[in-house]
Amino acid sequence: MANEAKPCPCNIGDRFDYEGCGQEVQVEHIKAYVCKPSGKSDKAVIVIHDIFGWQLPNTRYIADLLTANGYIAICPDFFVGQEAWKPSNDWASFDDWRKTRDSSKIDKEADVVVKYLQEQCGAKKIGVIGFCWGGAAVHHLMLKNPHLKAGVSNYGVIRFFQDAYNLLHPTFFIFAEKDDFIPLEQATMMEHSVLQVALLEQKLKENCKVDYEVKIYPGQTHGFVHRKREDISPQDKPYIEEGRKDMINWLNKYI
């Protein structure tokens, strides 16, 4: 179980040995990783990293996977130069670290990235996906940003969500059955109560006017979509592949 000594379930998991097919660019005050398909595309996806930052090879692998499916993919540094979390850091300092990296205060950066995609990449339809910290950021953007068409939140830490569920755009929520930090029914008491996935579904049903889906993947743990390698996790491989396929299918449907 998560506890106050380790207030986040995150570890690197399987760190991919992956260099990426794209390139790093400067977008106004933000560094970003960008990958473009060989053919022309007017569809783009913003990939929001987890606490390990925009340079994590695993996240770039997902960006390149999106590009292989016809999307311009961009993974900006939403920490804007601040250091990403390191597995060697003291977990007792995590809450203080996170306070300076608020997943609901990324609107300025999101607008800069959208403008870049529209003006420099020719994108007309833009979606967003995110992982953990980035999953919470997706929830935030789906409430506020009129320029985005759809979103996928991968195991967004629910206690980071705002208490708001009237989403503007179709949003897909991916959760793991055995995620100690995001329990499906029984809330874990920490400094704050962790909202249950069941409560999220209830609130969406009551307040959300656009399409949404909440899906729980059996036997999986936090980070499974982008932090597990299917070639060394044969028992998890079907669910890793299913999560990625579901994510792309959702984007294909609404972008």
Automatic annotation (TrEMBL):
Pfam families linked to this entry: DLH
GO CC, alphabetical: cytosol
Keywords: Cytoplasm
Domain of life: Eukaryota
Primary localization: cytoplasm
Molecular function terms, GO-annotated: hydrolase activity
SUPFAM superfamilies, alphabetized: alpha/beta-Hydrolases
UniProt subcellular location: Cytoplasm, Cytosol
Domain Dienelactone hydrolase: 30-254
Family indicated by similarity: Belongs to the dienelactone hydrolase family.
Protein name: Carboxymethylenebutenolidase homolog
Gene: Cmbl_1
